[in-house]
Here is the input.
Amino acid sequence: MTTPQHQTIHEQVSLPVSVALEVVLQGIRIRLGRSIVTILGVALGIAFLMSILTTQLVTQGVSDEEKTRTELVRMLSFLTADTGPLHERTLGVIQAGPLNPLETRFLQTIREQGLTRLQWTLLNKSLPAPKDADVVDLPAVAKDASAVIVVGDGDSSAVDWSAVLAPARQKVIAITRPNTSATQTFAGGTLVTLSRELRADEKVSLAAAEKRERARSIWIIVVSLLVTVIGISNSMLMSVTERFREIGTMKCLGALSSFIRRLFLIESTLIGTMGALLGVAFGILFPVLLYSSSYGFGMVFSSLSWGTLGIYGLFSLVVGVLLSMVAAVYPARFASRMVPAAALRSNI
Amino acid sequence: MSLTAQEKLADLFAEPAAGQRRTIIRAVDVKKVYRMGTQEVHALRGATLDIFQGEYLSIMGPSGSGKSTLFNAIGGLSKPSSGKVYINQVDVAQLDHNELAWLRCRTIGYIFQSYNLIQVMTCLENVTLPMAFAGLESEEARDKGLHILKLVGLGHRALHKPAELSGGQQQRCAIARALANSPEIILADEPTANLDLRTGEEMIDLLAKLKVELNVTIVSATHDLKMLQKSDRIVWIADGVIVKTAHPSEIDFSKGEVH
Here is the structure.
């Protein structure tokens, strides 16, 4: 008996990622038309989601801005009711602490009224110096002033209001915060409260409206997310299932299941990223342009919260890429596990 | 595996004496049951078959006879429900998917009825794809691919896509792809069924030529009389059982016996 000649079966070589990437890029290049359709499918889903998010942000921003503008007009009219028109007048500003956005906007509005001089004193020296104003010491702040405006979140109880107001032309103090100490100590002039405290019933109805608005926007976002999931899954599933036969052929030629999975993982990541980037760009561009045409560019651009928009964009990008990967890898996994004979038979 | 078991196996697969041919594929009592809903379909009811190296074997039988099932089982494309298939003395059922992939890549070349070329790739890319799976460098694969395409008479069409080729040319490309990693066995599933008579004949001549030149074993499932006549041995299968094995010279093709 001769020694049996056993042929050894080796492990199939696992191809490096670079080979898979090469095959994928070649594949995308070769079926460029089909790839573009799939990319557009992903882009459409993400553009839909992103445009919903952007629309919410733009309308929110515009409505906040309109409220702010109404408020500014009201504050200015309260002030001018006691001082008369501010044109060619001198005003004093006592800043006790950091300004809130409304105060900043209000002081900006006042500067635009054609003042002769804006005398500004900082009670706290660590605060940044104001622009377009003459920084003076506390005793000189009210010199020839028609009014002194007290702003900022800080303690002003040490100020001797009567002394400060002595050189003023009109003894008017305007406060933007209700709890300023001037309320108690100032006498012999006019005190204007620019801030407006909401009544209790107003607060309740405002909170209810906010809650309703929040529920509505969550609902809209959930629905658009669902539409995106279905849209992207559909286009990725189609692009994989129509290649079942190809996967079967590849398996007959000796491709490992892991190699096939890797192919689809890389391909779907590339396609998902491209589609999602495109979708985010269009999803921001269209609503912004659309609302700009009705509200005006300045209004939309100044009121839009760009930081939040960036976060939404990142979120949509991640959703797009993840969805594409999951939707492609699942059927590819299924196909790569099929017996080659079955994969070849499928006529999908 | 214990030593005694190994000895038994060695005995079973003892190298044949001089003059005898080496068995390259051995199927032992292969059965396959498909489940269709509640019904069980017995596609193969126990087929035993030895295929020798360098042989041109044809499997034939009416459709639904279990021909394709046997073919897929001996090619490692699907697992039998019971029974053993040994390719090169290795039990296919014992291989994991990794080793099966190796086997499909290096030992077996497949040719299909509908060619199964990857439509988006050129002929050359189709041929070099299995070489890439075997880990061959792309430069080397390119040269080898062109050489094989010339061998099957498709050198001038290397950079064409399958859609731009005739059926015969596509099947030539598929044959070239099957040869890519110099396999010992070529499995051809009705390779002439989609071709006209003359092109089919050309394909048969090409396979016969390759068999001699490259000393490959060819197993084909076919109805084609021309193909049956060229083969070394014909295996009849009917209703899931091998009913007859014969040399073409023993058969009168003018009678209806072949069907």
Summary: Residues 137 and 246 of chain A are 83 Å apart (CA to CA). Chain A has two domains: 17-66+201-344, 76-200. The longest helix of chain A spans residues 32-83. Residues 1-5 of chain A have pLDDT under 50 and may be disordered.
